[in-house]
Each structure stands twice: as C-alpha cells, then as structure tokens.
Amino acid sequence: MKRTGEVILGIIGALIYGFFGLIGGSMIWLQNNEALLQQALEEAPQGGEIPVEDFNEFMEVMGSSGMVMLISSIVAIILGIIAMIFLRGNKRPKAAGIIFIATPVIGIFVFGFVFGIMSGIFYLIAGIMCLVRKPKTPIEA
Question: Is 97 within 8 Å of 127 (Cβ atoms)?
C-alpha cells in the first residue's frame, strides 16, 4: 500500500512548522537588534513614547517566545521526518501515526492553542490516516 497522502501531509506540516520556525528566528534576530526595533516603534503611526520598562519587558518576552518557537519547530520538523522515514515502504505505519499525532498534541501546549492547531493540523490528519488505513487483503475463493 502506498502512503503518498500521509507523506504529502507530513511535508506540508513540516513546511508550516518551518514557517513558524522562521518567525521565531526573526524574533530572536529582532531582540538582538534593539536599535532597529526602537526606530520602527518610533516611526509607528500611533506616535507617542514607549516607557523604557515596557520596551525592555517587550524585548525579553519576544526573545524567549522566539526561542521557544524556533526550538519546538525544529523538533517538530525532525519528528515529522522520522515519521516519514517510518512510512517509506509501509514498514512501520503505526509508529509513524503515533509520532504524527503526538507532535501536534505537544505543540498545542508549547505554541498555544491557535498556533498549535494551525501548524499541527496536517500532522494530525496524517497520523489519523496512518492508524486508520489498513492494507487490502485479497479474498480467496
């Protein structure tokens, strides 16, 4: 039995996790470039000054959440690749399905509900497909 659908869903899920990893990496990069971020905030249409305490707190939160997004995205991509290797040749579809399902469930707690669902929906569908689809058995007459 070919597992093309599961592999394609896994690739799409890995790409979405990669997108969130890019966002996390850019948040870390912005934290390291405070002057650029300060200039962008000053040129914002709202105008007004931002207190130093609020700006420093914003920078800390942005850096830590960026690191969490980057690390969890990399782990999710690696787990997706492992699951797709398990699917190659239809060798271990149950193990691949469990990995595909566990990754977004854990991601919901790490990313938060909205981002976890957005990034993990393809892994979740691929995992369900891995566990539900059974190979056709020939009928002997």
Answer: yes
Three-state SS across 67-78? HHHHHHHHHHHH
* Cβ-based neighbours of 133, under 8 Å, separated by 6 or more: 1, 3, 93
- Chain centroid to Cα 95, Å, comes to 20
Structure tokens at 25: 């990496």
SS (H, E, C) 101-119: HHHHHHHHHHHCHHHHHHH
Cα separation of 54 and 59, whole Å? 9
pLDDT in tens, 62-98: 888 888 889 999 999 999 999 999 888 878 889 999 9
- The stretches of 33-139 forming alpha helices (DSSP H) are 34-42, 52-87, 93-111, 113-132
